[in-house]
Amino acid sequence: MRSGAEITDAWMRRFAASASATEAELSSLDQQVGDGDFGANLVAGLQATLRLLGEEGTDTASSTAAGPLEAAAAAFLDEVGGTSGPLFGLLLQEMAVAVADAGGGLDAGSLAIGADNGLSAIQRVGDAAVGDKTLVDALVPACEALASFPAAADPHEALSHAARAAWEGVGNTARLTARRGRASYVGDRAAGIPDPGAVGIGLLFSSAEGTVTRLAPFLREPEGVPVKRNA
């Protein structure tokens, strides 16, 4: 059985690979509703994460389950600008703290507490709620999915469930009119376009299972609202 450290180390490395593989699609989405830098910022944060982890996974940052999450949090908080860097940094930081507080192991309970604390931190900073067409629309259902599992449950099963819930939230953002962030400035031009930050949350949780190489299979068209993509 793999240790918690091995699981979170592989998770963050696959998150980095997923962001790199889908950077063009992420940029395309963000060019339609924002300033177009979300894909580049996500990749930059995760490349910095890989440097902290060490190319071969031998750095001390990956010696505990919390270590890779702490490395990713530090990378996003210290090295990524814009809006997305601090928000992803806060989420990963709270998840690292919860895993560390649980004794360094990895289970559904510590992940649920960390994700929920991360959501609270993000909402304190951005004051966004469900329905505002932000990453919160994907993170809230992911948190609810994690919380639905017994605390001692297999983290893989809980994260898989959270990923499916997050992508459903991503699809819902295509229906919404943005009330926060840069997308709120473009009005009806954002209709039918999933929020890029929410897509980033979907990538985060999906990467716990494997590397995502294309976004299109996840960007299902919500009923009556064609999802716009340039990929």
Describe the structure in brief.
With 231 residues, the protein is mainly alpha-helical.
Q: Helical percent range?
A: 55-70%
Figure out the total of helices.
9
Largest sheet: none
Estimate the mean pLDDT confidence: 88
Question: What is the radius of gyration computed over CA atoms, rounded to a whole number of angstroms?
Answer: 16 Å
Please tell me what the overall shape is: globular
Record keyword descriptors for this entry:
single chain, 231 residues, mainly alpha, globular
Describe the protein's architecture and organization.
Helix content is 60%, strand content 0%. By secondary structure, it is mainly α. It is globular, with a radius of gyration of 16 Å. The termini are far apart. The mean pLDDT is 88.
